[in-house]
Automatic annotation (TrEMBL):
Membrane topology: Multi-pass membrane protein
UniProt keyword terms in alphabetical order: Membrane, Signal, Transmembrane, Transmembrane helix
Signal peptide: 1-20
Protein name in the entry: CGL160/ATPI domain-containing protein
Keyword Disulfide bond attributed: no
Subcellular location: Membrane
Protein source organism: Fibrocapsa japonica
Domain named CGL160/ATPI: residues: 76-209
Length: 248
């Protein structure tokens, strides 16, 4: 494995870990957005509306000893159960989509690159599925009492080690089987470029179904997708849409 590939892996891991520890509020907001999306379909809010503890006027002082804060309203159990069920279904669907899409791409890799690279691509897909599972563990740990570096948070953040384990296992396999020459000057190049590319593409295969599902849930139509394409294709799609709107 050459130095540039190793540097890319290190940079990716540093960036991912920085996002995990420097932006916890953003991750919590995303998780709560997933939970509240299902609640809106049930017609009732999952999280209680804010309840003001007291109404302070200009003539009032803050030293009222008889003041008793109002308790928060309890969440609707039926809405909470429906939302959690939808959340679990979302995680299972994402894992299923990752395996199905990755398996199809692995079959294409077998046809184009041979059985060896196809199997390496599928190993990347399995690593991708493991990453999705650990990502779900990370989302489950949000708001829990053991959401610390020594608890479920550590389990979820261990997903950042998955690509290193993938490439490390591939490197070890090549060394043990003698598939690469480790006696020459390039002793660290134990993963050929084609194997590295297949493994990484297989590992990133979870992103395509995830992006597709986000687009479907957002209700983006074909014209909007074409407008997102950079260059003349996007401009042509935008002009065509504007022309249709003028005719209507």
């Amino acid at each position: 494995m050459n130095g540039s590939c190793l540097a890319l892996l290190v940079l990716w891991c540093i960036f991912s870990w920085s996002r995990a520890f420097l932006a916890p509020a953003t991750q919590r907001a995303s998780f709560e957005k997933i939970l509240t999306r299902g609640a809106s379909k049930c017609g009732k809010p999952l999280f209680a509306e804010p309840t003001y503890y007291r109404n302070i006027d200009d003539d009032e002082t803050d030293d009222d000893e008889d003041f008793v804060p109002k308790p928060y309203k309890e969440a609707d159990p039926a809405v909470l159960a429906a939302t959690l069920e939808e959340y679990q279904s979302l995680k299972e669907q994402l894992l299923k989509d990752t395996l199905l899409f990755g398996s199809g791409c692995s079959a294409v890799a077998v046809v184009l690159q041979g059985i060896g690279d196809g199997l390496i691509f599928f190993a990347g897909v399995l690593a991708s599925a493991l990453y999705v599972i650990l990502l779900g563990k990370k989302a489950d740990s949000v708001g829990q009492e053991d959401s610390t570096l020594g608890g479920s948070l550590a389990v979820g953040n261990s997903r950042f080690l998955v690509p290193f384990l993938l490439i490390g296992s591939l490197s070890l396999k090549n060394v043990v089987t003698g598939a690469v020459d480790t006696t020459g000057p390039n002793i660290l190049q134990t993963v050929p470029r084609d194997q590295f590319v297949c493994a990484i593409l297989g590992f990133l295969s979870y992103r395509i179904p995830l992006l597709y599902r986000q687009i479907v849930q957002a209700g983006v139509d074909q014209d909007q997708l074409l407008e997102m394409v950079p260059g003349s294709v996007g401009k042509a799609a935008k002009l065509a849409r504007e022309a249709r709107e003028k005719e209507e």
